[in-house]
Write a structure and sequence with these properties.
With 79 residues, this protein is mainly alpha-helical. It contains 3 helices and no strands. The longest helix is centred in the last third of the chain and has 13 residues, at 62-74.
Amino acid sequence: MRAKVTSIETARKLAKASKCPQCSAPSLKPHTPFCSRRCSQLDLGRWLNESYRVPAHEAQDDADLDAMLAEADKDTDLS
């Protein structure tokens, strides 16, 4: 298995070419991947306010599960 080798200069150019995820301006060194302290603080605020969320499915209660199992036991078509 061969890994792709990238020179340090190419990696630096790619890092410089990256854009700020907040405003799409070019990212700057002390605030990478953001362009400024303001954009990094805005992103942090969004994390702290829970604006970034991953949708999740709520688990069903055991009572619901028991009712579904009882219904399945009664249904002769499923057996």
